[in-house]
Amino acid sequence: MAADTGAASSKSDSLPPLQAQSVPVTPLRQNCTILSDGTGHAVVVDPGGDVDHLLSLLHGREVEAILLTHGHFDHVGGATALQRALSERQGRHVPILGPDEGDDFLLESAARQGASLGLEGMENVRPDRYLRHGETLNLMGHEIDVLHVPGHTPGHVVFHDRRAKRVLTGDTLFRGTVGRTDLPYGNGEELLSHIHQRLFTLPEETVVLPGHGLPSTIGEEKRYNPFFQ
Ligand SMILES: [Zn+2]
């Protein structure tokens, strides 16, 4: 998968790497991530809920986009409300990008997914654009690679920042475990094979920021994650 790990462009090489702040949201403590360039610009990944809290953290910052890894409510349930509030605050439409189109049925049922666990206020999501494996987003002048890692959900994508040596893995790869695949549309073999092909081929020092729990690195997970021993 050389295309996934190719050299960084000269443009983003000249900038300091993006910073990442994890903000646990919803009762499921999902790690929403705020990426910042240090000059007042930001991108929000997986705003599952707690939108008022996110808006206060983002005060004074210009949000370029909202990115989604997959369609589960704890990752997307606050995206529509956040988009609405930020677009009004900033006076321009803030796009929702992702996940892969295979998760459309989940985005269309996010409110119902939340309600089934007693969580009110989750909203369905209609992204401005679905993302595809192998494309590179240019956000805040930085390149973010999109990798499709299905198995937890059909349309799950992860976001790899080569310059910052960081990958946002959503519910694919966690510290010491992997995402659940027991839902009707899950596929355990597919998840493990895609982690092998598309995540374990990244540089070992790459920091893994998962959708739940503590960070890790690609090297640590290759060596110690029990699913791959
Ligand atoms: Zn999930």
From TrEMBL:
- Name the needed cofactors: Zn(2+)
- Please provide the record's keywords in A-Z order: Hydrolase, Metal-binding, Zinc
List the molecular function annotations (GO) for this entry: hydrolase activity; metal ion binding
Q: Where is the Metallo-beta-lactamase domain?
A: 29-212
Q: Extract the Pfam families matched here.
A: Lactamase_B
In residue numbers, the region (Disordered) covers 1-23
Chain intervals with Polar residues compositional bias:
7-23
| PANTHER family (alphabetical) | HYDROXYACYLGLUTATHIONE HYDROLASE GLOC
Q: What name has this protein been given in UniProt?
A: MBL fold metallo-hydrolase
Origin species, per record, is Oecophyllibacter saccharovorans
